[in-house]
Amino acid sequence: MPFESVEMRIPDGSLLALCTDGLVESRDKDLDVGLGRLISVLEQPYASIQQACEAVLGTMEQGREPDDVALLLARLGEGRAEEPTAGWTLPAEPTAVSRARRLVRGTLADWGAEELTDTAELLVSELVTNAVRYASAPIGVRLTLGDLLLVEISDPLPDPPRERHAGAGDEGGRGLELVRRLALRWGTRAEGLGKVVWFELSNTGVQPPDSML
User: Fold this and answer.
1) Rounded CA gap, 150 and 116, in Å?
2) Which of 26, 49, 79 is the last residue of a domain?
3) Domain interval for residue 35
């Protein structure tokens, strides 16, 4: 089926929104009405991309029949460049764990984000320990601080990590369980011949899903 390719220039700082038709179209409202409603929501000021996403989903799904919905928002250009970033390459040996913890602690202190230190240190320690256990090549650690703290741990192994169900007496096996419970979001992606395991921590007081009890 033929399709048209279009190129356009988008100014730095623009908010790019990508979504499936399930967000903007329904039986009783056509596509143009839904797109207009989406634009009106996104024209409002928001403190973060996360707030904008929550506002869109909360507004657009009111009174609608359930449907598959996907939404991606991204701030282009200058907004991303201002986010502080730090990264290191560590040898795949046991000393990498303590070194990663020190680097995370010192960097977050320099950024004035000490409130994230304990959780970030713990989760980095668990993921680096897991990488050291199985990898033989260097491991990457990367931090990016914006509306959220993004932490990325890379290693040369392609297989995604699997969560283990550790017993009460087990000393290990809880790394991914801790990430799932303490992080706002987490996931994995392929990178080259290896993979990246990433997680996000909120620095705006938003609690991870498993802590909302």
Assistant:
1) 11
2) 79
3) 15-79
